[in-house]
Task: inverse folding
């Protein structure tokens, strides 16, 4: 006959067995979760080539799912301790013949043990005796179901076996799976193996073509068909580009994207191999955002330095210079101005942010040409090609003009005459000087052999006249005392006027003078021959010729001229009288009508 102590031991045994079943079943479920998570992670990573951050996140999610299964099916059930009452109720549910006696006996005996009043002792003894008699042949362990445990355990064993077979059959894939958690760029094994993908650099300039070279491991399968490049912009736009084998090396494939329009990721696919994504940053080239120009004019113009103007083409008087400052769109490493004639003018940094640059010396405007700005930023990128070309319009300082008003034609003079010469001279920025240029041909001498003489007339020009822009005519008058030239009858004087301003850039070089002839003075004496040299050809007036005559001839010529003038005057008077008569006749006829 069993006792109450035996009933208590049976309940403890049920409790221990049940905890063992829970532990085994929970561990089997956990194994299933581990296998499922490993296979799911492998499939996701293999199919979608997850980035390294995605792999880590997926691994953490899988580990979290495994921990949740372990907590739900192991820790949580084990933490819930089944007491004797619960087990007794489950035994009675399994054995209806007990009719509540087992739970009553367990509870009443526990009350008696605490010294509480539980009822009549005789009744309690009778209940205990009936309960022990009914419970003696019963197997309390039958309330524990092991069917679920067996199924879960079988499934876990099968899953674990599949996992082991996969690892044994495809060890390189699972090795790659593990290594990809340590080495971000490690790849799964393929028949074709990509050794490297070579973009031009980690960045390219906006709008430039992107050349990509893919090198295949020659020890792997090298496909004969073309591959594919996929350029994926940050906004999700994808551009496919064909990868073509190099004619020189079949293991090298090349592809080119026509224009880089934004930051991108490039993926190469050759055969069954797929490269990991390679990021390429697209950076803007430097450009001139704004700038300023200040013109410095030649001193002789009397003009002040201009106010700053917007940067662009240059337009100023020849001999002017321009102070140039530019502001770039990004920080620069260097900048220079390239003239069309090949000159290079280096710019220096003018600000702390490396964006503002200026010319240390003003840009000399000496001719019409053009220029461009070359900038190199800190990434080594230069401004767009072809560069913006800025014109240089060098406006010429007009040469002075001199016009002889009197005498206006050839005439005769005496050896002691004092000739009045009237002329006009003009220039856009003022006349520097005027020369009276002449040559005297003596009787019996050729004009070509006559020596040219020059007299500067600067003192005869009104120097107080202001120099202003725009042509300004200066009327001038001089008296030429011919008696100072020691003239004789039949001598001839050819003269003209020459003028010059303060600008040297508008001077014109005359044809070089011929070297001395062999029979000229100094030839054959051991002295070097005169070398040809260029001289400035100044603007000049028309030539006028004076022929020297005697006093009598001059008076006769003058008298003859006076007679001709009188005859001309008489003819004019007759013409005037005829006009008057015709006018009166017309008036009379008009009045009669």
Result:
């Amino acid at each position: 006959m069993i006792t109450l102590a035996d009933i208590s031991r049976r309940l403890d045994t049920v409790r221990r067995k049940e905890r063992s079943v829970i532990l085994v079943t929970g561990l089997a479920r956990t194994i299933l979760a581990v296998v499922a998570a490993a296979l799911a992670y492998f499939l996701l990573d293999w199919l979608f080539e997850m980035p390294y951050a995605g792999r880590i996140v997926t691994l953490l999610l899988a580990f979290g799912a495994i921990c949740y299964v372990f907590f739900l099916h192991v820790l949580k059930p084990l933490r819930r301790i089944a007491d004797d009452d619960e087990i007794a109720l489950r035994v009675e549910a399994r054995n209806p013949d007990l009719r509540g006696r087992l739970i009553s006996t367990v509870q009443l005996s526990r009350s008696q043990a605490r010294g509480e009043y539980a009822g009549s002792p005789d009744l309690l003894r009778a209940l205990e005796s009936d309960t022990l008699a009914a419970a003696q042949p019963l197997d309390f362990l039958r309330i524990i179901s092991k069917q679920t445990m067996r199924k879960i355990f079988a499934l876990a064993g099968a899953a674990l076996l599949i996992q082991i077979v996969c690892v044994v059959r495809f060890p390189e894939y699972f090795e790659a799976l593990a290594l990809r958690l340590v080495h971000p760029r490690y790849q799964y094994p393929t028949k074709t193996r990509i050794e490297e993908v070579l973009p031009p650099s980690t960045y390219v300039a906006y709008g430039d073509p992107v050349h990509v070279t893919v090198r295949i491991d020659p020890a792997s399968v090298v496909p004969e068909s073309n591959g594919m490049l996929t350029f994926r912009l940050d906004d999700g736009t994808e551009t496919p580009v064909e990868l073509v084998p190099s004619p020189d090396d079949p293991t090298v494939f090349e592809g080119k994207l026509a224009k880089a329009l934004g930051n991108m990721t490039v993926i190469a696919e050759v055969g069954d191999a797929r490269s990991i994504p390679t990021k390429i940053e697209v950076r803007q080239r430097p450009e001139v955002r704004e700038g300023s120009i200040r013109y410095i004019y030649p001193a002789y113009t009397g003009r002040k330095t201009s106010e700053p103007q917007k940067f662009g083409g240059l337009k100023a008087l020849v001999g002017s210079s321009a102070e140039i400052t530019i502001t770039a769109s990004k920080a620069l490493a260097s900048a220079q101005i390239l003239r069309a004639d090949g000159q290079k003018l280096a710019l220096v940094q003018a600000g702390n942010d490396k964006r503002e640059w200026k010319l240390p010396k003003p840009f000399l405007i000496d001719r019409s040409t053009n220029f461009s700005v070359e900038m190199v930023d800190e990434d080594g990128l230069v401004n767009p090609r072809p560069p913006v070309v800025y014109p240089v319009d060098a406006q010429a300082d007009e040469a002075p003009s001199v016009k002889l008003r009197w005498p206006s034609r050839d005439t005769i003079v005496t050896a002691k005459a004092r000739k009045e010469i009237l002329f006009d001279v003009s220039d856009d920025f003022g006349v520097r000087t005027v020369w009276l240029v002449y040559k005297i041909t003596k009787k019996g001498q050729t004009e070509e052999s006559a020596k040219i003489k020059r007299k500067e007339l600067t003192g005869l020009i009104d120097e107080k006249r202001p120099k202003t822009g725009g042509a300004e005519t200066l009327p001038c008058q001089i008296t030429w005392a011919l008696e100072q030239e020691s003239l004789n009858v039949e001598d001839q004087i050819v003269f003209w006027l020459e003028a010059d301003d303060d600008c040297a850039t508008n001077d014109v070089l005359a044809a070089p003078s011929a070297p001395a002839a062999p029979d000229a003075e100094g030839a054959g004496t051991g002295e070097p021959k005169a070398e040809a040299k260029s001289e400035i050809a100044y603007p000049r007036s028309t030539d006028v010729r004076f022929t020297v005559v005697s006093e009598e001839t001059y008076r006769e010529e003058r008298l003859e001229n006076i007679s001709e003038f009188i005859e001309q005057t008489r003819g004019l008077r007759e013409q005037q009288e005829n006009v008057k008569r015709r006018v009166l006749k017309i008036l009379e006829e008009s009045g009669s009508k």
Residues 415 and 480 are 12 Å apart (CA to CA).
